[in-house]
């Protein structure tokens, strides 16, 4: 049974703008007719350009915002009518803000949360020990939150969001501003929590490496509409973005002639050829090997960045 269900959900805002002495009111549909379900244990990457409606969706899922139209159920309840009850079953992390108490040492914030969520002391101690170990928080527990670096604070925030064993966790830009090592560590931790505890994860991010590392499913939203829902390989295939053959020849040559592929770049004896995603690379490789002094060769898949950019540019709202 789905743990999250949205049925034709919309949320509009009235925005007033002023030009000279005239004030005009305009309706912005941040989310417009959105329907989807999420099964327990899924890790869904929820992506879209700025202003697409991602935060509005997450706010409706946590019950902070009420939809203008449509219905939402999270863990079997309507979030806006059961906000307090639902709070025990969900965890939320906003990369840009902390939910920890600024002046308290990290461990005191954790203690407040234990009381707030009424977590049995033994369970709290067990979770704390696990998270301190996995997130390497041992030396930070006595440090006031305001003295933590961004990466340290983020690890603290993620532990805080998970201490009460939520079934669902919403992560809004959890790796924003972190260095590569911290990002990798956080992704590994989140993957482990999902595997070990079956926690459902909704991940909003502009860092597509987060999605590649963690998500089994990608949902793309643009102008409040869903424009894609499926796997990452499926997203690649749907956009039919060309693949690239990187060919190393024994000697520098003019652009080589290969039927079904086109040279787009040369650099000394190396040449780059693009070919349609629907074509197999094998006959191209055979052609090159038969006609040129081939020494090495690799096939490059299109980057997700290029695929997503293509998807945004082809959605109706942009045309
Ligand atoms: N409280 C509000 N009042 C008026 N308009 C709003 C409000 N909140 C959001 N909007 C508008 O709704 C649209 C969607 O905003 P939302 O914050 O959900 O986008 P987002 O996908 O999270 O963007 P970003 O990636 O920039 O965080 C935008 O046009 C935004 O200006």
TrEMBL record:
It is found in: Cell membrane. One of its GO terms (biological process) is response to antibiotic. GO terms for cellular component: plasma membrane. Residues 4-248 form the ABC transporter domain. One of its GO terms (molecular function) is ATP binding. Keywords: Antibiotic resistance, ATP-binding, Nucleotide-binding, Transport. It is a peripheral membrane protein. It comes from the Bacteria. Pfam families: ABC_tran. This is ABC-2 type transport system ATP-binding protein. It comes from Kribbella amoyensis.
């Amino acid at each position: 049974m789905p743990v999250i269900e949205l049925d034709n959900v919309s949320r509009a805002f009235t925005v007033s703008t002023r030009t000279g002495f005239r004030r005009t009111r305009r309706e912005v549909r941040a989310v417009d007719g959105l329907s989807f379900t999420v099964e327990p244990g899924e890790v869904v990457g929820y992506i879209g350009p700025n202003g697409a409606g991602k935060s509005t969706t997450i706010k409706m899922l946590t019950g902070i915002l009420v939809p203008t139209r449509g219905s939402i159920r999270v863990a079997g309840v309507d979030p806006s009518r059961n906000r307090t009850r639902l709070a025990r079953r969900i965890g939320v992390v906003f990369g840009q803000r902390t939910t920890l108490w600024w002046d308290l040492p990290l461990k005191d914030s954790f203690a407040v949360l234990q009381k707030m969520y009424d977590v049995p002391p033994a369970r709290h101690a067990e979770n704390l020990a696990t998270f301190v170990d996995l997130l390497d928080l041992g030396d930070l527990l006595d440090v006031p939150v305001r003295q933590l670096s961004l990466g340290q604070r983020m690890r603290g925030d993620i532990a805080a969001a998970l201490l009460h064993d939520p079934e669902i966790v919403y992560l809004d830009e959890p790796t924003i501003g972190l260095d590569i090592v911290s990002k990798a560590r956080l992704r590994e931790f989140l993957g482990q929590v999902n595997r070990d505890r079956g926690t459902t994860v909704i991940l909003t991010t502009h860092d597509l490496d987060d999605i590649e590392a963690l998500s089994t499913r990608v949902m793309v939203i643009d102008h409040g509409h869903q424009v894609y829902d499926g796997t990452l390989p499926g997203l690649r295939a749907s956009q039919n973005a060309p693949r690239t053959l990187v060919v190393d020849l024994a000697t520098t040559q003019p652009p080589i002639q290969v039927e079904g592929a086109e040279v787009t770049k040369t650099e000394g004896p190396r040449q780059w050829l693009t070919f349609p995603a629907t074509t197999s690379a094998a006959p191209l490789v055979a052609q090159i090997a038969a006609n040129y002094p081939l020494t090495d060769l690799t096939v490059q898949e299109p980057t997700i960045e290029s695929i997503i950019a293509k998807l945004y540019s082809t959605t109706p709202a942009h045309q």
